[in-house]
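Working notes for the structural subgroup meeting. M.R. asked for a predicted model of this chain before we commit to crystallization trials. I am recording the input and output together here so anyone reviewing the notebook later can reproduce the run.

Input as submitted:
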Amino acid sequence: MHEVFAFFARNSKWLVFAFYLVLSVMLLAGGDPYHRHLYLTSANSVSASVYDVTSNATAYFNLRERNTELNRRNAELQSEVLALREQLLRIDEQQCRDTLVLDSGVAPFRFIVAHVINNSVARPFNYLTINKGEKDGVRPEMGVIDASGVVGIVSVVGSRSARVISLLNPNFRLSCKLKGSDNFGSLVWDGRDPGIALLEELPRHTVYSPGDTVITSGYSAVFPAGLPVGIVMPDNYNDHENFFTLKVRLLSDFTALNNVQVVVSSLSAEASSLEEGEDQDEERAKKAFN
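Returned structure, recorded in token form:
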């Protein structure tokens, strides 16, 4: 108690000043409407400033929690987006499978619908990658087509993906012929326009017209016979006295590949076995001749 009295004694002047100051303000604000309005306005301004500072301080200290919550929601949204993409991809593949029309010429074949996940068209040797692999039944040397025509041939197979040699690759040659003709040649890309290829080694007596359809010959177990590949353009090259070359506008748009079908042939294993037998027969014949 002695310390309390000592405090009041030391600060009595300031306490009396504060008392009269508060009293004068109350009398001033209470007696005159203008001063009352001025007092309330000033008080509200001070209160608003205090509240604003308090709110900013609270928001600053809550930033970590808000960032954590935003990151959590962002992760959830990313998962939902990926799930929706997978669902749309399955729907897209199913529609592609349902609209694939087979005729009697492709009876020994079945098709695995795949999605292109990587593709190149501007390189000298182009490849593409699909999202189906060994676990889905894809094997090397299987043909790949889309709704418009031939795309390429499988070269390397992984567990869940496969690499495909694109038709836009000079290393890939496709046996083709003109629709309605038995004369065939080799379709190859010349490394220039991704929409144009060359049909080489056609016999000189082959009759053709610009606008004729180029189709697969069926002289392999990789692609069914009669698949459309391209349209003959007006230009041709007389590069050999017995053969000539046609310029072909490809039907498949390699700059916009999406869904493709991997061609699974029931004849490929048998054809490979027969070809191996032919090689063995040639070796035996050489040994007998020597």
